[in-house]
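User: Just a sanity check before I run the rest of the batch. Below are the structure tokens for the first item. I only need the designed sequence back.
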């Protein structure tokens, strides 16, 4: 047998041995799992995972809770964003305005966007009105005074339907090398090492400086910090 054939035979033997060893050892999780009390005694709750049977389709093992690490991507959605008072209206906020006593062919009843100039358009007969920099109550009084130029006794109701800054908060955030996400004008929140529920609670606590009982939805948009192998 030539030298080349011997090397080939040795290579195939080595590969076969590696396959046999892998089959005998199997996969082992790195976490600790609870063992049955009957087999280990009632005072033993957990044992090293290497002592547990290898996971298979007949012996499934749940993965531990995922922990966020750089450079994961997080998807954040604002579910509730009620600003702490006093809140001063900004451009691109949306007001919900209802007025009783308007002209029959030109009702004021719906949502009105504050444009880049800080004004809202109430309709052809009523014109524009600047409301940026006012509170919601001040805006209601200003709208009432403005409409009295055309209407006899308008009854005005105004509420904040959407904050422009809160809408900007929703999006995808990169976990930086320092383990934090940058929420733009709302500051920085450290989330590295946390599970999703823990990170969500921390983000909500941070945003409570700006909003009344904020609620957010948080999910993983990209598992960039982990590599998974399927054998």
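Assistant: Here's the designed sequence for the first item:
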């Amino acid at each position: 047998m030539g030298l080349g054939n011997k090397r080939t035979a040795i290579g195939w033997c080595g590969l076969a041995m590696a396959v046999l060893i892998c089959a005998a050892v199997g996969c082992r999780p790195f976490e600790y799992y609870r063992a049955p009390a009957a087999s280990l005694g009632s005072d033993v709750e957990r044992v090293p995972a290497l002592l547990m049977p290898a996971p298979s389709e007949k012996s499934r093992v749940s993965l531990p809770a995922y922990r966020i690490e750089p450079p994961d991507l997080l998807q954040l959605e604002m579910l509730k964003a009620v600003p702490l008072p006093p809140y001063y209206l900004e451009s691109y906020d949306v007001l919900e305005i209802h007025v009783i006593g308007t002209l029959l062919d030109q009702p004021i009843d719906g949502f009105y966007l504050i444009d880049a100039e800080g004004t809202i358009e109430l309709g052809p007969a009523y014109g524009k009105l600047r409301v940026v920099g006012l509170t919601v109550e001040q805006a209601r009084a200003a709208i009432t005074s403005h409409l009295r130029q055309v209407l006899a006794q308008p009854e005005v109701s105004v509420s904040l339907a959407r904050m422009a800054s809160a809408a900007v908060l929703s999006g995808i955030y990169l976990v930086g090398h320092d383990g934090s996400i940058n929420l733009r004008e709302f500051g920085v929140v450290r989330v590295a090492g946390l599970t999703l529920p823990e990170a969500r609670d921390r983000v909500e606590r941070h945003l409570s400086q700006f909003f009344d009982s904020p609620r957010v939805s948080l999910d993983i948009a990209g598992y960039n910090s982990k590599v998974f192998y399927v054998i």
